[in-house]
Amino acid sequence: MAPNTRSRANQVQLMPNEKDRHPLMSDSDINTIMLNGAQISLSKLKRAQKFDARLYYYAEISVYLEVSLSRGAGIADDTRKELEKIHAEATHYHMDANKLLNILEK
């Protein structure tokens, strides 16, 4: 056998496994993504100057919360609770900004 030729057994061992070729997200990854996405949306909501922009970011946070309620999605209970807190904060901020906007318009 030539020095550069490998046997079938060696080729199988050298082939990357399925996870190496197509990395899958673990449960902890999806939890991190959900929390970071909601935090980013909350930050943008707080900086938004227009009602439509605030509503958009509030809706994004609502989607993160709704997705977290899906069973079997790999979302941890701690993540769900944290998303509920972010959603509550966003709700209060959005409502307060709307009240202020209504006062200024009068």
TrEMBL record:
It comes from the Bacteria. Residues 1-14 have a biased composition (Polar residues). Residues 1-25 are annotated as: Disordered. This is Excinuclease ABC subunit C.
